[in-house]
Amino acid sequence: MSSPQRDSGVRAGRAIPSGARTGMARRLVELPPHQIPAAENWFTYGSRTPRAARRASSVCLVQDGAHGVETFLGYRSGESPLGSVAFPGGSVEVGDRAEYRWFGPNLTWWSKRLDVLDQQLVRVHLVCAIRELFEETGILLAGTDEQSVIEMTDPEEWMSAREAIAGQDLEFAEFLRRRGLGLRTDLLRPVAHWVSPNFAFRRFDTWYFAATVPLRQEPSLLRAKGQWAQWCSTEQIIEQRATSGLGDLIGQPDTQGLRLSQITSPAVELMLERMVDAHGVVAYLSRARSLDVQHPDLLVRDGTYYLEVLGTLGDESTRPWQAEPGH
User: Fold this and answer.
1) Which residue among 5, 174, 296, 300 sits deepest, i.e. has the most Cβ atoms within 10 Å of its Cβ?
2) How far apart are CA 304 and CA 226, in angstroms?
């Protein structure tokens, strides 16, 4: 990928035709403050080999609310490539390659659906998604057969298991084996594939999935690790994204006073937008969508750094992003 581009005459935050790239929409989003040093470094030293991207998976929990689709968002400290405010998720671990009981479509089906030939790579992304969702929220997409989903009967036992798995004191595969559980991969819906921009110091190659919460399960923060998480109205977040409403609600030093694009990633913002446009969980989960990889590029204009995201016009949503500050 090329070094950062210098751009002029483009209104940041708008979905606009991208010149000669017929049928494409170009979207610009301002960089979060913590990413600016990496962008400056990349721009100063020019194009070079980007750091390797770690494999990762993330799951968007969705439910219907009074104002349309709601999703479960959490705060991450430590300047995560997934954003300070993001869906549950994380990087692939060695244990994700272990043997698991498997309910739902086979790997051949998943490989075709994701358009990834390496079935083992597809497998670890799916396992990672279900494991990370359990660690971070307590939602477990697993059952004893194709029709069942485990119920959370003992919250304290559940929390202890989550802590042990997150701390790598207990293998997720062993946790499931002891309870006779298999992965319910049929409860996941693939919704997006994003790779972090080349300039970033930490990069992820992330598959995003969506799921609903099974009956008699309820998401919660991981004890002693989580700082903020809750169900959020996607409509309200998008309506208020030019303000610091969400960042102030979270109340962390790196979220207060900042707009949505400054506390999350373009991947999260775009998916929130598409949840709003779906007008309901059933419509969102069943919507046909392209799973082409999104790989934002770095662009600088008048000394301000932006991420440029290209997408096909008419693909799910072409609503404008927030207007550039001062316009």
Assistant:
1) 296
2) 32
20-25: average pLDDT:
52
Distance CA 80, CA 264 (A): 9
The Cα-based distances of 172 to 101, 136, 183 in angstroms read: 12, 13, 11
Average pLDDT over residues 3-27: 45
Q: What are phi and psi of 313, to 5 degrees?
A: -60, 135
Q: Give dist(CA 203, CA 199) in Å, integer.
A: 9
Q: Which of 165, 294, 175, 279 has the alpha carbon at shortest distance from 225? A: 165
Contacting residues for 258 by C-beta, under 8 A, at least 6 apart? 32, 33, 244, 247
Single-letter code of the amino acid located at 296? P
Residues 276 and 35: their CA atoms lie apart, in Å, by: 27
Cβ(43)–Cβ(3) below 8 Å: yes
Q: How far is CA 48 from CA 4, 53, 194, 295, 310, in A?
A: 11, 15, 21, 16, 22
pTM for this entry: 0.88
What is the chain's mean pLDDT, rounded? Answer: 86
Closest by CA position to 222, among listed 150, 152, 134: 134
Q: pLDDT tens, 62-73? A: 999 999 999 999
